[in-house]
Amino acid sequence: MNDRLQQFLSAENLTQAQFADSINVAKASISHILAGRNKPGYEFIVNMMKAYPDLNIEWMLTGKGKMYRSANQGSVARAQDSPSGNDEDAPIELGLFSDSIPPISSSQEQDRSGQEDTQLQNIEISPETDTSGNIRQQTVRQRKAVKIIIFYDDGTFQEF
After folding, report:
1. Do residues 159 and 146 touch, judged by C-beta distance below 8 A?
2. If we measure between CA atoms, which residue out of 44, 73, 68, 50 comes closest to residue 58?
3. What's the whole-model pTM score?
4. Around 75, how many Cα atoms within 13 Å sit in the side-chain half-sphere?
5. No. of helices (H) and no. of strands (E), the chain
């Protein structure tokens, strides 16, 4: 991967420092990866994917394919990622501190109530089992204290 990263930096006309700044990692980590001392971690790869979306990450990791994605692949991926306006099954995304909950359409509400009924019907109640018959008695060997040591705050101690 070191060689492919070096090829990518050359193709983009980037220095190690510029590349490190663009993907928000320490400059030394780029040097260590290129020297073979360290391997790139998850955060490094994710930041690289975000900063350079046209980079073929499979090429970067394994050497398979071309350095850059073709325009068709990128547009297909974007089309699949974009939500359609009439998709009722899509999960509702709320902000972390959102006060309002969007209304649920009647078809979604009916689907959910049907799912809850099905889930309740599938629950089986098993009778309680008596585990008292399964308890084994274990004999524990009695132990005796052999030595007791008391340490005092002035650094002295006594053995008994």
Report:
1. no
2. 68
3. 0.42
4. 3
5. 7, 2
Q: Return the bridge partners of 20, or none.
A: none
pLDDT in tens, the chain (160 residues): 778 888 888 888 988 888 888 888 888 888 888 888 888 888 888 888 888 888 888 888 888 888 888 754 443 343 444 444 444 555 555 555 555 555 565 555 555 555 555 555 555 555 555 555 566 666 778 888 889 999 899 989 898 8
Boundaries of every domain in the chain: 2-81
Q: How far apart are CA 124 and CA 114, in angstroms?
A: 18
User: What fold is seen in the domain 2-81?
Assistant: 434 Repressor (Amino-terminal Domain) (1.10.260)
Rg, the chain, Cα only: 31
Give the span between the Cα atoms of 68 and 54, in whole angstroms: 6
